[in-house]
Amino acid sequence: MSGSVLFDAPGPRTVARHRLYTVLTVLGVLAALVGLVFFLDSEGELAYAKWEQFVTPKYVEVILVDGLLKTLQMAFTSIIFAVVFGVIFGVGKLSDHRPVRWACALVVEFFRAVPVLLLMVFIFFTWGVGGGFGPYWSVVLALTLYNGSVLAEVFRAGVLAVPKGQSEAAYAIGMRKTQVMTLVLLPQAVKIMLPAIISQCVVALKDTSLGYYIIAPGLTYIGKAMWTEFPGTHLQTAIVLALLYISVNLVLTFIATWIQKRFVGERKQLEVGMTALTAPTSTTP
Questions:
Q1: What confidence category does residue 271 fall into, taking pLDDT thresholds of 50, 70 and 90?
Q2: Which of these, 66, 105, 84, 108, lies nearest to 220 by C-alpha position?
Q3: Alpha-carbon distance 285 to 278, whole Å?
Q4: Is the overall model pTM greater than 0.85, yes or no?
Q5: Backbone angles phi, psi at 176, to 5 degrees
Q6: Tens digit of each residue's pLDDT (9 = 90 or more) over 218-258
């Protein structure tokens, strides 16, 4: 019963062959990594002098505080604003009033189509320079507009994914449209949209690196300062920054997986189903 009906279960020879493929793949990857290490060592890229700044406390503090912390701040701030933007314009695209629906659709489609880097540059040179709000908020605003327009479509699709019987039942008991949206549809739609929302957090985090072009604070800005102060360390700086981005994204992925299993996973659905099946039934009319 637990197997799939789309294909037969693999036999002993197939299982052994797949294990052999796995072992050969792992050995091939390890051989490639060892070859890469030997190549970098032969080119002098693994010399301690080129990595010393990354184990020096003063520079480590700069990377973590002025680099990673600023990157996380920009990503977190922009995603909070983007969620608000997405809810407003996503619900606006579902409005019964045609002018509101068309205006929201125009805003969403425009900011979805404009490249993020171009949006950052436009905002920075329009309102950020001089006495403006600077490169930090230029990055935040650009990421808010882009990710908010994407989340608007996510919210709209999530609301439309809720079974129509839910809204029909709410209208049947006398709820207004605002009550139906806020009390019935959105709470159910959020569970459907949760993985996509957290995935967009990862996108916002990675897109903060584009702030390098307008000299915004963050990991890429610190990286440029590092290889400028220590010439010939471009590769080492790129590796360290990549490891930091990967580590943070792995943490976000872990959180997304935990939230999905906790709130919208199969285990939770199974528990709800079993509760409904085992609930006592009343014989009273």
A1: very low
A2: 66
A3: 20
A4: no
A5: -80, 170
A6: 899 998 888 888 888 889 999 999 999 999 988 888 887 78
pLDDT digits (tens, 9 = 90+) for 137-191: 999 999 999 999 999 998 888 888 888 888 888 888 888 888 888 888 888 888 7
Q: Burial-class residue 76 by CB neighbours within 10 Å (0-12, 13-18, 19+).
A: middle
DSSP string over 214-253: GT-SSHHHHHHHHHHHSTT-HHHHHHHHHHHHHHHHHHHH
- Residue 285 is classified by DSSP as -
The structure tokens listed for 160 are 């439309």
Buried-exposed string 219-228: b where 16+ CB fall within 10 A, e elsewhere? bbbbbebbbe
Distance from C-alpha of 171 to C-alpha of 180, rounded to nearest angstrom = 7
Assigned token pair, 154: 């996510």
Instruction: Supply the CATH classification number for the domain 49-261.
Output: 1.10.3720.10
Q: Which two tokens stand for residue 15?
A: 């299982």
Residue 94 sits at the vertex; the CA angle it makes with 89 and 98, to the nearest 5 degrees, is 95
